[in-house]
TrEMBL record:
The lineage of its organism: Bacteria, Pseudomonadati, Pseudomonadota, Betaproteobacteria, Nitrosomonadales. It comes from Nitrosomonas eutropha (strain DSM 101675 / C91 / Nm57). Keywords: Lyase, Metal-binding, Zinc. Its EC number is 4.1.2.50. This is 6-carboxy-5,6,7,8-tetrahydropterin synthase. Belongs to the PTPS family. QueD subfamily. The keyword Metal-binding applies.
Amino acid sequence: MLITRKFEFDAGHRISTHRSQCRNLHGHRYVLEVTILGGIITDAGAPEQGMVMDFSDVKRVIRETLVDQWDHAFLVYAGDTRVLEFLQSIDGHKTVVLEVQPTAENLALIAFDSLHRTLRNKYAGRLELEHIRLFETPNCWADVNKVDFKFDLVGEAPGS
Ligand SMILES: Nc1nc2c(c(=O)[nH]1)N=C([C@H](O)[C@H](O)COP(=O)(O)OP(=O)(O)OP(=O)(O)O)CN2
Ligand SMILES: [Zn+2]
């Protein structure tokens, strides 16, 4: 059985190598859809009876793992040194440094990697991350599915 919860967060970025507008500092209201695979809990009287996972727990776990860290942060490529140095010059600025350009594709892969590890560690064998969809704008999004994940990570296979 699959369940999906949607999250929204605001973040700044730029694609420093982009040929056009996206090389400018700008931001998005990202929409992240997280789909989890698991069996329905059938234990009579259990608080989660009839559920794969309580949506309020999905919210808490996904926010703690990722969304709260990215919300109102600037997502910057480590190779974008001018912008990184500028952000580091601002006291207390919420900056997330990435080893890859903060495209929708790369952010979706990073999100999948992080959430997959969390679900595996907390709910080993019972719940599994099935799919991530990250909207950068209402018209543009990237998908990562577990069957594609190991072939998609930039430069390396996902850790064990
Ligand atoms: N494959 C990708 N292409 C682009 C990405 C990306 O992450 N992956 N990102 C950008 C820009 O950052 C920008 O966010 C997208 O801008 P744009 O193409 O203008 O998208 P809009 O939905 O705002 O465009 P409309 O024309 O208003 O529909 C660029 N490319
Ligand atoms: Zn953008």
